[in-house]
Write a structure and sequence with these properties.
Layout: H1 3-15, H2 20-26, H3 39-50, H4 56-65, H5 73-82, H6 84-98, E1 112-121, E2 131-139, E3 143-151, E4 167-171, H7 178-186, E5 190-194, H8 213-216, E6 224-233, E7 236-246, H9 249-265, H10 272-277, E8 280-285, H11 294-301, H12 305-317, H13 328-354
Parallel strand pairs: 1-4, 4-5
Antiparallel strand pairs: 1-2, 2-3, 5-8, 6-7, 7-8
Length: 362
């Protein structure tokens, strides 16, 4: 690709972003006293380092070779530390713009689906999680519509997201808390969530605690089962459906190995409740049974895997998995830049599939 072709592609990307100069000045990235004053140059340098995988020294050298700027790696690092608010503003602009795009498939347009999940990012030499990205992916567009960056203490909570009436929220067992489920329902949205019984007690219509495992032992592999249930949070009762599928023997054995391996890492013994639940996929939903059968609820839950694949792509193709920073400020900016990189790629994919191939809207 020639330099002129690269410049043309760069101009397409600039069309999707807000006024770089004004936003950089308002975010505190550009200082009036000294240094590079061109926000576009700073964006190029930051993307070279964060998205391109160049070190600070390599980025400074590349900038000098391309006559973009003359600066030291230390100066670039100092500006990286200040860049997080600006990069966040650019991401917010992209999210707001992308939320206007309609789906373009045979997906039932009367339903709005959102997949929520989180992924961990580690600093060099760390033995545990240092940062966590909480992410919401919209189907069928496969576009991110919300994200949040926290440190390792930021747990997975549905309360981190804002829900709208009529949305269908798909979540895994990490969000298996009655408070979060109640928040979804209070917003008028529907929930499709993988259930863990020991964390989420259920009742029948009379208020008696339900122990569904006793009724599931007779299920054959591939058979489904459903029961009307309810749960209580802060003295308010919410009705739902418990949809269950019995796994195959191979899938059950795989689940048992995963449970034992996880317990072994903590020097604990796998609990009987977890082992007895391993043969089943249990999904709690508030979708109306007249419109969604048991099989359809279980099938739609399988779509949640798309957010896992999105994380795998970000970690393998965009090197999001290991954080090459040791200070909190530079780490937040680096993660924020990776999110901006992911959003730009999503936009490129959407534009290439859904609009004329000249690359931009008039």
């Amino acid at each position: 690709m020639t330099l002129s072709e690269l410049e043309a592609d760069w101009n397409v990307i600039l069309r999707w972003l807000p006024d770089l100069q004004a936003s950089a000045r308002e975010s505190g990235l550009i200082k009036a006293q000294r240094g590079i004053k061109d926000a576009e140059i700073w964006l190029r340098l930051l993307l070279m380092h964060i998205a391109g995988g160049l070190s600070l020294k390599q980025t400074a050298g590349r900038a000098r070779e391309q006559s973009l700027a003359t600066l030291s790696p230390v100066a670039l690092h100092k500006r990286l530390v200040l860049a997080q608010p600006w990069l966040h503003r650019l991401c917010s602009h992209l999210l707001k713009d992308q939320n206007q795009y309609p789906g373009s498939s045979d997906w039932p347009q009367q339903w709005k689906f959102r997949l929520v999940d989180a992924t961990d990012i580690n600093e060099p030499g760390a033995t545990g999680t240092d940062w966590r990205i909480h992410y919401s992916l919209r189907l069928p567009e496969m576009l991110c519509d919300h994200y949040q960056i926290t440190d390792k203490h930021g747990g997975e909570k549905l309360a981190r997201f804002v829900f709208a009436p009529g949305e269908i929220i798909l979540a895994d067992r990490g969000y298996n808390h009655r408070e979060g489920a109640a928040r979804v329902l209070q917003a008028g949205a529907h929930l499709v969530m993988r259930l863990s019984l020991h964390n989420f007690p259920l009742e029948d219509e009379s208020g008696e605690v339900i122990r569904p495992l006793e009724s599931l032992q007779s299920l054959a592999a591939g058979e489904t089962w459903e029961r009307a249930v309810r749960f209580v949070w802060r003295k308010k009762t919410y009705t739902a459906r418990l949809c269950v599928l019995r796994k195959s023997e191979a899938a059950t054995e795989q689940a048992l190995r995963k449970i034992r391996r996880k317990a072994g890492k903590s020097s604990l013994k796998a609990g009987p409740a977890a082992l007895s639940s391993a043969p089943f996929v249990m999904v709690l939903t508030t979708l109306p049974p007249a419109l969604w059968s048991t099989a359809q609820v279980l099938e739609i839950y399988r779509c949640r895997w798309q957010v896992e694949l999105a994380f795998k792509r970000m970690k393998s193709l965009m090197q999001l998995g290991c954080l090459p920073k040791t200070s909190d400020a530079s780490a937040r900016s680096w993660v924020q830049g990776k999110v901006l990189f992911a959003l730009l790629i999503e936009r490129l994919l959407w534009e290439s599939k859904c609009v004329s191939p000249w690359g931009y809207r008039l």
